[in-house]
Amino acid sequence: MEHEEVARNEEIAWSKGPEFNDVEGETITNPTVKENIRNFYLNLNKESKNSRHDFNLHETLGITNVEKERLQRQFEEEEVLNVIKLCASDKAPGPVGHPMCFY
What we know:
Blueprint: H1 3-15, H2 31-43, H3 65-72, H4 77-86
Region (Disordered): 1-29
């Protein structure tokens, strides 16, 4: 089975909900373990002192004039339709968006 097919089958399985994916879990009762898990997720996205990287944006590569013109041109209808066709019908465009099948 090809990678794309395996990924698609897995996506379909998860989209069917918990009755299809009966995952048995373990209830954690140890307060120390619960506190460690809680702290892990509380600090997951916090920035550490050493997490900042110094970027010299003046030395980054720019884009060519041809690339600049391509980015500034009008979208073609065919281009937009092709992108819409590539969207999965059960995926939303953002956290509060409607999935493609809604439309």
